[in-house]
């Protein structure tokens, strides 16, 4: 039976609901008319990221490409083509560059927070999107005159918010992507023509000059897609900022260790936010041959899904998965094949999101700032629906009476 409709109605619970009846953490079903094998667990992560089993080319549905990633993005490539394109991103994400981005965003946050005290009500999800966008644009070397952070932030958030749903959110996401791809294409062309100077070694310069093949740089449209694939995931950290505020509201005892500047605890808190709160429900790839996992099979040309939300809440791995407990990551380090909110495998050679380090680094910094910020949480709808993908607190987490220490 095709389960596309139930996926749209059940959201994050769709795969976990079906895994509940499986003793081997494997499910066979159909989506969009295609046979699907869904798997879960550290072994399954290694199976899923084996390029001999799964390709990404042709696997990502067009509606997702047209909103979240962009046509021709690194996410659609395999093998040497994928590794060559990924070389564009990896040097930007070494620890020094990540720390530099975190400093840019932290300075932007501090600047914005001072203005929040003058406003009667602030929605942290919305404000975080603007802060993150403004900070990453400065870090990436985009000229200030070419960037209006607030509308750009709205478009970047819309791209993420509408990728997994039909209807108005999806249409907003398509329009946002088309608008920003056109703007970033013009910016790339201006850099190449000399009309705009990109700072040496900046993201903007690297993207504008990147070659997949020695003979020619990326076409300007594809370069714009990849520039947005630096800006968009950074803006998407606003989801985790809202979740962090939600966690500190529900479990305020964690504030003291964050306020004290306990770096190890800040890292553990960032990992637990990413594990506990829902973001990506699953990841998918196209099977390149008939695959069998724990007695269930899927033919070549079918789909292999990795149950991200289910694995991050698997009792076999976490013991108490529905308890928010950052200390679990102080007791033992995060295993990259167990904790997979942004995919699994090796980011240097595989499809694990290279921006994961950025997400963790930004959350470490912003969680501390959130814990130190004083505010009142008024009556509002803080429910987080598992049917909405991607989900977030319904109110966006509004605060009043902001006071900067």
TrEMBL record:
It comes from the Bacteria. Its cofactor is heme. Signal peptide: none annotated. Keywords: Heme, Iron, Metal-binding, Monooxygenase, Oxidoreductase. Pfam families: p450. Belongs to the cytochrome P450 family. This is Fatty-acid peroxygenase. It comes from Streptomyces thinghirensis. The lineage of its organism: Bacteria, Bacillati, Actinomycetota, Actinomycetes, Kitasatosporales.
């Amino acid at each position: 039976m095709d389960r596309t409709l139930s996926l749209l109605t059940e959201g994050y619970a769709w795969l976990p609901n079906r895994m509940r009846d499986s003793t081997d953490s494997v499910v066979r079903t159909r989506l969009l008319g295609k046979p699907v094998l869904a798997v879960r667990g550290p072994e399954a992560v290694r199976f899923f990221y084996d390029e001999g089993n799964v390709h990404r080319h042709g696997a990502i549905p067009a509606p997702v490409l047209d909103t979240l990633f962009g046509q021709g993005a690194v996410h659609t490539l395999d093998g040497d083509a994928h590794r060559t394109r990924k070389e564009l991103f990896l040097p930007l994400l070494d620890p020094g560059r990540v720390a530099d981005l975190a400093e840019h965003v932290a300075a932007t946050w501090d600047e914005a927070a001072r203005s929040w005290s003058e406003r009667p009500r602030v929605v942290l999800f919305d404000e975080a999107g603007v802060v993150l966008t403004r900070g990453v644009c400065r870090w990436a070397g985009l000229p200030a005159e070419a960037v209006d952070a607030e509308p750009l932030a709205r478009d970047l958030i819309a791209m993420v918010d509408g990728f997994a749903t039909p209807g108005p959110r999806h249409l907003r996401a398509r329009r946002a992507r088309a608008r920003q791809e056109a703007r970033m294409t013009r910016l790339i062309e201006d850099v190449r023509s000399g009309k705009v100077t990109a700072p040496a070694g900046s993201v903007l310069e690297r993207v504008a000059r990147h070659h997949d093949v020695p003979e020619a740089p990326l076409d300007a449209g594809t370069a714009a897609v990849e520039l947005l694939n630096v800006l968009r995931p950074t803006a998407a950290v606003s989801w985790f900022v809202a979740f962090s505020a939600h966690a500190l509201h529900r479990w305020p005892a964690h504030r003291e260790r964050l306020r004290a500047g306990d770096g190890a605890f800040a890292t553990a808190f960032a990992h637990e936010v990413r594990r506990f709160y829902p973001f990506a429900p699953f990841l998918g790839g196209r099977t390149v041959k008939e695959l069998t996992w724990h007695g269930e099979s899927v033919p070549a040309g079918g789909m292999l899904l990795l149950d991200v939300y289910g694995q991050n809440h698997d009792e076999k791995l976490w013991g108490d998965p529905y308890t928010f407990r950052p200390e679990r990551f102080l007791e033992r380090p995060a295993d990259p094949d167990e904790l997979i909110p942004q995919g699994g495998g090796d980011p240097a050679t595989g499809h694990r999101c290279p921006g994961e380090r950025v997400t963790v680094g930004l959350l470490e910094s912003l969680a501390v700032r959130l814990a130190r910020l004083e505010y009142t949480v008024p009556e509002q709808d803080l429910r987080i629906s598992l049917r909405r993908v991607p989900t977030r607190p319904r109110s966006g987490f509004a605060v009043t009476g902001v006071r900067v220490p």
